[in-house]
Design brief:
Length: about 100
């Protein structure tokens, strides 16, 4: 006895919406460097104003500006180190 199966349709995969964050690493690195450079310039300007005796510039503002610049430079350096680490890991991947 043979049973014929008729009207067979393949099961289509259910479409899923995946939101992919497409961050450009080069653009992010450039932004981090630009921000760090700007904050360093502000810290330098604040230090010069304080050294010149500007009464509107207190030592606490100079220290805060310098610390912001320090954090921005550390962020840019960390970003660079992670990118280099990822590149090295990809290059060492066995195919």
């Amino acid at each position: 006895m043979s049973t014929a199966i008729t009207n067979i349709q393949p099961i289509a995969p259910v479409p899923t919406e995946q939101k992919v964050d497409k961050t450009d690493l080069g653009a992010e690195f450039g932004k981090a460097l630009k921000d760090a450079r700007g904050l360093e310039d502000k810290a330098s300007e604040a230090a010069q104003k304080f050294a010149a005796g500007d009464p509107s510039m207190g030592i606490h503002e100079v220290v805060i500006a310098a610390e912001k610049a320090n954090i921005a430079v550390r962020y840019a350096t960390t970003l660079k180190n992670k990118a280099v680490e990822a590149y090295r890991e990809l290059m060492n991947t066995q195919v």
